[in-house]
Design a protein that fits this description.
This protein starts with a strand and ends with a helix. A hairpin with a 2-residue loop joins strand 7 and strand 8. With 390 residues, the protein is an alpha+beta fold. The protein has a domain of 172 residues: Alpha-Beta Complex (2-enoyl-CoA Hydratase, Chain A, domain 1). Helix 6 packs parallel to helix 7 and helix 7 runs parallel beside helix 8. About 9% of the residues have low confidence. Strands 1, 3, 16, 17, 20 and 21 form a 6-stranded antiparallel β-sheet that branches. A 6-stranded mixed β-sheet has the order 12-13-14-18-19-22, with helices on both faces.
Length: 390
């Protein structure tokens, strides 16, 4: 089993396809946890058999037993009422895991839920969703004309995904306005999760998501920053929907002393797990500004909260998405999987940001006019503040 603190989001890392993100994020280490039941009484399946028998005897059509069983499992999990607790069929499970490897075919956006709506968490820079003009918190009302009402993130993701070069049409609602349609050509999406460069005395590190290559790439970037003597750092996690919790812990550790709290998980008032820094603090003491926005969720929020609460960084930008729960992935028979919410996560200072987000220390908006002109007021402000300290 594995743990994820996924965003809205885990939401769905739709790398052009979708994942459910958000996206705390995925904890690749297994954990042992006693399982409790909500009730001491076993479920009474007689009414379910009654429905099945009627369907089997009276339905004018062909029934597929595997599809029926997958449907029952999905319905059972969905009835828990938590958007981040999901059942994945074998096909959906493969898609879910492929996305965490950083290579998929889709439109290049992460999906999540907000007030029972399927929404864009963040489009990935340079990919079809962004080029088509999709924005964080856009509601996807329909896919190829079929309403998304009542559908899970994973189901919508499956409808959006498809063969490279084919088209998908989304019906979008933005800011309660009138619905409009956007047709997007699917593309293979392969994105290194970390990009970095030195701009004079300032090191710039962009983490687009927390995948299986993030820890190594961030370590490489940090080592290069150290060797080249950078005097300040901008850590850009805007539009980052989350991913592996272990990667978020490793990234945070680059700035933190050994044993510092990165994130705490609680079930009710009981602390079930505390993630601590590893002592690999090669960037400790270097002035750092972390960029976040409304597309920053889950593991990126964990990292931002850990660095700020431990006094290692200043946050700049816009309020983050607000994904404060942790999911665990259980492997089931036949290749299916189940993602279940097992806890809520809290920053080192004891704050759960679910549905609230993290408010940055310095609020700076990237308005549409600036973006259209190729400008980045948030990044520019971060550089200006750091330059003043050099």
């Amino acid at each position: 089993m594995g743990r994820i603190g996924l965003t809205l989001v885990f939401s769905a890392l739709l790398f052009g396809a979708g994942l459910a993100v958000g996206r705390g994020d995925i904890h690749i280490q297994g954990i042992s946890r006693s399982h409790t039941t909500a009730s001491s009484s076993a479920l009474d399946y007689s009414s379910l058999n009654e429905v099945y028998n009627i369907l089997k005897n009276d339905y004018d059509g062909t029934l597929d037993s595997n599809s029926l069983i997958d449907g029952m499992k999905s319905g059972l999990v969905s009835a828990a009422g938590d958007p981040y607790t999901e059942y994945f069929s074998p096909k959906e499970a493969k898609s879910f895991n492929d996305q965490l490897q950083g290579s998929i075919t889709g439109i290049g956006a992460e999906l999540g839920t907000n007030n029972s709506n399927i929404v864009i968490v963040s489009p990935l820079a340079g990919y079809p969703a962004e080029k088509a003009g999709l924005k964080p918190k856009d509601v996807i009302a329909a896919v190829d004309g079929k309403s998304t009402t009542g559908m899970s993130v994973s189901s919508v993701v499956q409808k959006i995904r498809g063969k490279e070069g084919t088209e998908v049409t989304l019906t979008i609602i933005r800011n309660s306005g009138n619905p409009f349609k956007v047709t997007i050509t699917r593309q293979k999406i392969t994105v290194p999760s970390v990009k970095y460069q030195e701009d004079g005395a300032i090191g710039y590190m962009k983490i687009s998501q927390f995948t299986n290559d993030t820890s190594d790439l961030a370590q490489k970037a940090a080592q290069e920053f150290k060797e080249k003597g950078v005097k300040a750092i901008v850590l850009d996690m805007r539009g980052n929907p989350g991913g592996y919790l272990s990667a978020a812990t490793n990234v945070s550790s680059l700035w933190l002393d050994d044993g510092k709290t990165v994130v705490q998980e609680r079930r009710g008032t009981t602390v079930v797990s505390t993630e601590r820094s590893s002592g690999n603090d090669i960037l400790k003491g270097i002035p750092t500004i972390v960029l976040i926005d409304e597309g920053s969720a889950s593991a990126s929020e964990i990292t931002a909260g850990a660095l700020r609460d431990n006094g290692a960084a200043t946050l700049l930008g816009q309020k983050s998405f607000g994904k404060g729960s942790v999911q665990q992935v259980e492997t089931l028979s036949g290749g299916s999987e189940m993602k279940v919410t097992i806890a809520r996560w809290y920053t080192p200072n004891g704050k759960n940001i679910d549905k609230q987000g993290i408010t940055p220390d310095v609020l700076v908006n990237n308005d549409d006019a600036s973006v259209a002109a190729g400008k980045d007021p948030q990044k520019d402000k971060a550089y200006a503040l750091l330059q003043a300290k050099l």
